[in-house]
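Why show two proteins at once? Because comparison is the fastest way to build intuition. When a single record is shown, students tend to memorize it. When two are placed side by side, the eye starts asking what differs. So, the first record is below.
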Amino acid sequence: MNPSRRHVSLVSPCGPGHLPTGSHHSEQHRRHYGVDNAAGAREHRGGMASTGSFAPTLLLAMPQMVDPNFARSVVLLCEHGSEGAIGFVVNRPTDLRAAAAVVLDPPVSRDNGLVFWSGGPVEPERGFLLLGESPGAVDSQCVSEGLYLTASVEVLRRLLECDPEEVARKRCRLLLGYAGWGPGQLDRELTASAWLTAPAEAGLVFGTAPEAMWERAIRSLGVDPLALQLGPGIQ
């Protein structure tokens, strides 16, 4: 699709009752997940299992992930329960300018350089705002400390009207699409060691270059990415 003609709809953030019923992975994709993580990462993940939900957390794709939508991805998991799970890839910037895609009434006449990030392959025409501070809007959700989702058009307008220098300083991500799992699907992928988990830290999400985020997140667990298994079993 021509980016200059791509229109994006801002929608409500995830929350109870908004979990997707579809799936972002096929059975073919899941067959490639027969790997295991290093002992240190397994220990971290095990501490969360008793709660029944892994959210909020960061999902770190194992090196063996072959799905191009998620290879070396960092996913902010926002909701996880019996109905499924929803999250957003947070290390995939695009070159699509928000000014070229967002339609507001009245329109915003300037282009301050704000770009979209790919939040996942599900419903890629939907937009979500991920912010580092509370937007003070009713239609918003605190995912974790320093990580907020909102669908407020007024918040979006304020961002689009900011000076370029101010936008560059802000902790904000304008995300397109999301990652969705059906009932039990993420649990099966975690059991198959498709993902590592790490704390959902705003400093990592907003303060790390996207191309370095995946490796830095893995190293924060005390794990060397090069030491992760290339086959079944623990190294």
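Second record. Ask yourself what differs from the first in the token line.
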Amino acid sequence: MQHQHYLGSANVDSNFDVGYSEDTNWETKITTVTYNGTSLTETTDYTLNTVPNTITLIPGGGNSALQTAGTADLIISATGYGDASVSQIIGHGAVNKLAITTEPGAPAANGGDLN
């Protein structure tokens, strides 16, 4: 994966692509793909060449490594080649929880408005 480059804005909510220089022989010899030391499963966690010369990572595939915001190494191993790696940032997705930090106060009398 020489001259790898990141395409787009990676976050835990959406699939995202990491590009690499074209080498179809290398692609056919890929044996493992890991992110942050966790093995990824082809078609569930990633696909190859959906977009030419890219690996598409799939956070929605259920792998917690791809669902955790942060920076970690994406490492692709292929028989007969040195490991290809890139430090990949995965950002937070859209807010999906609401936290209430101030609870309403009791009403002055029964049936009254909350303070």
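One difference worth noting in the second protein: The longest helix spans residues 24-28.
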